[in-house]
């Protein structure tokens, strides 16, 4: 029979375990020092502001503060769902999020697989640089570029269409085009940055696997589907789960630079509505309730998707 640990032995075991932890921390103290700015950032700008979410249940008054404001319970949440345009705004946010996952998420994976097959290193580096450079542009600059490209009078797109006898189209002035513009501009700006992550994951694959497959006569395409993709699958899963967690958080700047009264019906999302109602109209409690609703939905989505991911692939965030 296995011997049971006596209370005194348990105490010694805990003491030894704590000593090992402190010894490990002393040995690797530079890592903890490097991580301090990130920890402080999240504490100051992510976790401490969470306590301010209490104003979602109040009629917040900036002069009375949180302690002096009146409590109203779930009144702002009821008002949120009773608002006639909120369902349309929620629909826009969900549809744009789905389009972004279906079209924007796979493109960095495909780009990384294609770039990885390039054998001329100089050309490979040039392509990598050209692809990820737009990531460093602000959305204001990207918006200006897109407006210029799609301009009905001077834009290159309408110039090309005119060669085929098509009348100029004011793309940013029609509801039917705004979602396509939002997704395609995001793909152009950010797909290169995601490509770098997947290229880094591909670089970590053991070269012996490719050598063994070549001996067995596997083609390059076969190697991609049998070695490369399965090897980077954990990275794909983690990034996919993170994107699901931000499903309703499409980005304020990304949408706001393209919005105007002509495309507002299909283009406005929760983030832009919160800006308009919260900062412009100063409805702080109401927009905090909307933000809290969005955060809860994101948390539920990431928990559910993580559970399914663990069951199907064995990989997850936690």
Q: What is the total number of structural domains?
A: 2
Instruction: Describe the main β-sheet briefly.
Output: 2 strands, antiparallel
User: Which of globular, elongated, flat, extended, rod-shaped describes the shape?
Assistant: globular
The strands making up the biggest β-sheet line up spatially as 1-2
List the helices and strands in order: HHEHEHHHHHHHHHHHHH
Could you tell me the number of beta strands?
2
CATH class of the largest domain: Mainly Alpha
What proportion strand?
under 5%
* Straight-line distance between termini: 35 Å
The radius of gyration is 26 Å
Q: For this structure, what is the CATH homologous superfamily of the largest domain?
A: MetI-like
Family: Belongs to the binding-protein-dependent transport system permease family.
Organism: Paenibacillus allorhizoplanae
Keywords: Membrane, Transmembrane, Transmembrane helix, Transport
Subcellular location: Cell membrane; Membrane
Q: What's a quick, concise take on this entry?
A:
The chain has two domains: 31-73, no CATH class; 83-312, Orthogonal Bundle (MetI-like fold), CATH 1.10.3720.
Q: What this model shows, in words?
A:
By secondary structure, the protein is mainly alpha-helical. It has helices at 7-27, 29-47, 65-68, 75-82, 86-104, 106-116, 121-132, 139-149, 156-162, 175-203, 207-215, 220-245, 252-256, 264-267, 270-280, 284-312; strands spanning 58-59, 70-71. It folds into two domains: 31-73, no CATH class; 83-312, MetI-like (MetI-like fold). Its main location: membrane.
């Amino acid at each position: 029979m296995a011997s049971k640990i006596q209370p005194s032995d348990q105490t010694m075991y805990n003491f030894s375990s704590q000593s090992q932890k402190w010894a490990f921390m002393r040995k690797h103290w530079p890592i903890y020092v490097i991580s301090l700015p990130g920890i402080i950032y999240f504490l100051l700008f992510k976790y401490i502001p969470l306590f301010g979410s209490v104003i979602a249940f109040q009629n917040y008054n900036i002069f009375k503060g949180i302690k002096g404001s009146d409590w109203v319970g779930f009144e702002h949440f009821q008002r949120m769902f009773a608002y006639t345009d909120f369902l349309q705004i929620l629909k826009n946010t969900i549809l744009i999020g789905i389009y972004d996952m279906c079209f924007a998420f796979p493109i960095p994976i495909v780009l990384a697989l294609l770039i990885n097959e390039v054998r001329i290193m100089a050309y490979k580096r040039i392509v990598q640089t050209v692809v990820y450079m737009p990531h460093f542009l602000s959305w204001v600059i990207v918006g200006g570029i897109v407006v210029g490209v799609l301009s009905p009078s001077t834009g290159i797109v309408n110039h090309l269409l005119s060669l085929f006898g098509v009348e100029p189209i004011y793309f940013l002035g029609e509801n039917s085009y705004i979602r396509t513009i939002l997704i395609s501009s995001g793909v152009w700006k950010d797909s290169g940055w995601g490509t770098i992550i997947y290229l880094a994951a591909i670089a970590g694959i053991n070269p012996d696997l490719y050598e063994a497959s070549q001996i067995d006569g596997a083609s390059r395409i076969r190697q991609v589907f049998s070695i490369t993709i399965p090897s980077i699958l954990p990275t794909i899963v983690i990034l996919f789960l993170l994107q699901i967690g931000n499903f309703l958080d499409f980005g304020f700047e990304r949408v706001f630079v393209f919005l105007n009264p002509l495309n507002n019906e299909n283009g406005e999302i929760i983030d832009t509505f919160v800006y308009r109602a919260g900062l412009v109209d100063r409805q702080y409690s109401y927009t905090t309730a909307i933000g809290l609703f969005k955060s809860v939905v994101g948390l539920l989505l990431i928990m559910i998707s993580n559970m399914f991911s663990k069951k199907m692939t064995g990989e997850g965030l936690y």
